[in-house]
């Protein structure tokens, strides 16, 4: 929809009266935005202007019941569910996204932690070693849980490193970590 602008001094959306009238006629719930100012807009814009969503850490929002609750309607506070102003548009069918495997996710976490440098107490290396040495001994969900446990408690990474040359002890340690996380 065109004809809208921004007034930096008044911190609000601007438009000619006929543009507002047309919008409010089609979408009555937008009436309140006609006179509403947004004093935090510039601060929020500064916080978010350099951010770009890449989807690298996306989670499947469509998976209902993961924590026992189903999601409700996605409608915003102002009643606008999709932000689209055209009444005749239809919502396209939701396409099914494949979820990255736990191994891929852990590899991404390990790479990111390695890039953080020495602050991670060897966490990135521990996760990389876990994938390299022990991935065939654990299911994907177990590897993901182990990765989260090591990230949550970096000292566990040091213990894991100390068992590097003792596979039986290392596997026993990892099983105990898994048991403590359940």
Automatic annotation (TrEMBL):
Residues 1-26, 43-102 are annotated as: Disordered. Residues 66-89 have a biased composition (Acidic residues). This is Myb/SANT-like domain-containing protein. It comes from Tilletia caries.
């Amino acid at each position: 929809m065109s004809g809208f602008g921004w007034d930096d001094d008044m911190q609000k959306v601007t438009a000619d009266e006929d543009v507002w009238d047309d919008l409010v006629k089609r979408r009555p719930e937008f009436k309140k935005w006609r006179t509403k100012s947004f004093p935090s807009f510039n601060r929020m814009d500064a916080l978010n202007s350099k951010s770009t969503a890449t989807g690298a850490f996306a989670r499947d929002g469509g998976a209902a019941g993961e924590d026992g609750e189903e999601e409700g309607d996605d409608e915003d506070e102002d009643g606008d569910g999709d932000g689209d102003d055209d009444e005749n548009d239809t919502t396209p069918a939701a396409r099914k996204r494949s979820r990255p495997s736990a191994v891929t996710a852990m590899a991404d976490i390990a790479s990111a932690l390695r890039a953080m440098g020495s602050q991670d107490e060897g966490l990135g290396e521990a996760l990389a070693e876990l994938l390299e040495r022990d991935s065939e001994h654990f299911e994907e969900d177990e590897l993901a849980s182990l990765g989260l446990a090591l990230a949550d408690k970096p000292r566990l990474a040091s213990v894991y490193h100390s068992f590097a040359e003792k596979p039986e002890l290392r596997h026993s340690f990892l099983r105990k970590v898994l048991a403590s996380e359940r």
